[in-house]
Amino acid sequence: MCGRYSLATPAQNDLRARFALGESLEIRRRFNVAPGDDVVAVTTSKEGVARGELLRWGLVPHWAKDARTGFKMINARAETVDEKPAYRGALATRRCLIVADGFYEWQRREGAPKLPWHVTRADGAPFAFAGLWAIWHGPAEQVLRTCTIITTQANARLADVHDRMPVILRDQGEEEAWLDHATPVPVALELLRPLPDELTGRRAVGPAVNDARHDEPDCLDDAPAGGEPAPSLF
DNA sequence: CCAGACGTTGTT
DNA sequence: GTCTGG
DNA sequence: CCAGACGTTGTT
DNA sequence: GTCTGG
């Protein structure tokens, strides 16, 4: 799945050019983005123009009674996203990009603490998750713009760490197709594949990332020696 | 018809 | 809002 | 995803 | 165990 990620790339101007985020959007270096945070995203206006904005991670559908619903909807399964009532409408008209440069997966181990891995593109370049977004009108004048990250089966490169991974669009062409309102849903669904093994990089990291409130560079530090999976005793 | 869910992951 | 289950 | 709470009454 | 908050 995808419950934590990074956008640590220091070159903000490169990000603005690469993803058409606009000049005014504030882009902070993030080492530990968690559900409930405002995240850097690209949506499409009614006129069909891509624009950068901040969306709260955790989709709150327009019919939700309260905003806490979002914590249950941080991911949408690619295999069923066109069937689920909570996502089907968004799939047709509110697809978005969520800008990142890595994500974290926790590997469960017998007799040892869960080991976090930082997964990136093999070349370390920033990328976009395939996402969906929604607008929610709360009590008073409260308006929330929220999003979810689509997940799929993990590729072979990550199979020993976890069985799910977020959908990372492969290139700018796929990103434009995902954002384009003219792309029919069946065509958009074809983009929801695992990143190819040869484009995937991974590195075990230390426990700093475990705490969602800790958003510091040491989240990316190498796992301490002995943190790698020990040979099974049996 | 009304009531209640609407989500994913991992673990038992 | 829309679908499913009762 | 992980971490941390999981409760009520009454008083400030 | 399950829910909430980050």
UniProtKB/TrEMBL annotation:
Q: Give this protein's Gene Ontology molecular function annotations.
A: lyase activity; peptidase activity; single-stranded DNA binding
Which family does the record claim for this protein?
Belongs to the SOS response-associated peptidase family.
Q: Which residue intervals make up region (Disordered)?
A: 206-234
Question: Which top EC class is named for this enzyme in its record?
Answer: hydrolase
- Top-level taxon of origin: Bacteria
The protein depicted here goes by the name: Abasic site processing protein
Q: Which residues form the signal peptide?
A: none
PANTHER family (UniProt xref)? ABASIC SITE PROCESSING PROTEIN HMCES (PTHR13604:SF0), DC12-RELATED (PTHR13604)
Entry keyword set? Covalent protein-DNA linkage, DNA damage, DNA-binding, Hydrolase, Lyase, Protease
Q: Known Pfam families for this protein? A: SRAP
InterPro entries from the entry? SRAP (IPR003738), SRAP-like (IPR036590)
Q: Which GO biological process categories is it annotated with?
A: protein-DNA covalent cross-linking repair; proteolysis
Instruction: Provide the E.C. number(s) assigned to this enzyme.
Output: 3.4.-.-
